[in-house]
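Moderator note: this is an archived Q&A kept for reference. The question asked for a predicted structure of one protein chain; the sequence and the answer are reproduced below.
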Amino acid sequence: MTILVAILALQETDEDYHALVAQRARNRAAAQQLMRIAVGALDDGKYERAVALAKEAHGRRLRAAKAHDRLGEILRGLVPALLAKLDGPEANDEASKRLGALGPPALCHLARLRPGLKGAAAARVDDLLGGATVEAKGIVRQWAEEARASSEWTDSSWAAKQATGRPDTKAGSASTSWCAHAADGGEEWLRLKYRVAVRVSRVRVRETVNPGGVVAVDVIGLDGERRRAWSGARAEAGDAEWFEIDLKGEEGREIVLLLDTKRSLGWEEIDAVELIGEAVEE
């Protein structure tokens, strides 16, 4: 059965695959938009219109789910088949390019298969995963690729982008960390985007100056909805160190750190944020 699935998957053209990805995205977006309109209609007392819109949204979600399931079937056959072509003394460039062209939907499958790979195949998959480390059972550890913030000191020094990538700042204030524009200004946020979608189990925040400002973590779900995954406060401030937070297992590849910058005197600085969790299908 596995061999048959792989053969059928290889017969899928790139155009078929990308058309299916686009179809899923369109139906997901349409379902969200229809539900927003339905809620508005309900608020306006237009009950019948709200019901009709909700039914249409449900139909769109069903179509998106059907496309999602079909994509999963294709990828479960196609990814292993392409990975097999990377084995040997000379890696197959065409197979590597096709793996890269599969985009985010394939990353979960690459992450799950990564622990069993060696040599050129392992190196190429590591590149596709953006340097993320994959442990047993598809547990992914990764650093942010993109960052935005409520404010930043400048667009280069102490900028939001300084919170991407691996830690590169020692204890103490340095322009290679992010901080808000104003010290003790109150509520600030740092939004981070990662390569691989995961069921988030832990976040590790490298705080280099005035640790203790993080008071909540939200996860941007694969459906685009923002959900609170943790709220609380660090007991005390101290020297630069890691602040580790256990989360509730929300699925996504974007998180938002919320800070209360009035908790300690002066600027809070964040160097890097590691996201840990089990790879999930987008």
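Archived answer notes: The longest strand covers residues 187-209.
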